[in-house]
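Fig. S4 source data, part A: sequence.
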Amino acid sequence: MYDACRQHVWAYAVSRAGRQVADEVVSETFAVAWRRLADVPDPALPWLLGVARNVLRDSHRADVRRESFAYEVGRWTARPAGDIAEDVAERLAVLRAMATLPEGDREILILVAWHGLAPRDAAKVVGCSPAALRVRLHRARRRLLRAADAAPGDRGQEEKQQGARPGTRPQVGIIGEEMS
């Protein structure tokens, strides 16, 4: 199977993503085929090209997540020309809000935001289905936002006490809201 299909899978990967990633796509495709050897139909090539397509899609998603995460981390670590104390206070508020969450919520948020895992992969880590993980992630994000809004000393809380409409809260976009 490998000898008969390798060149076709490689050509497909080159046509979709370029030479720089083709070898990696071929390796991952045949690793999947080896793990699922009993599922490989005859002829194998269409199935292998479908696997290669999924590998490329997953690779693209991972790249997008990494770029998004790098952007968020850059926003949090960059030294703006403005008030650094304000940024530090925001980060501390997010950390305080994270500390109030149950361990399970923190674990899911860290797996998705810090480690960049897709919900499917995070589900494997915590031992639940991907659908259950998505629900838990949604609820954990919601609890984090509530905890950030309710944090003592939060600017939004101070504005509420002064009768103003809360306009700002600690930025928690780093928790991977766009990842589904």
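Fig. S4 source data, part B ends here. DSSP finds eight helices and no strands in the chain.
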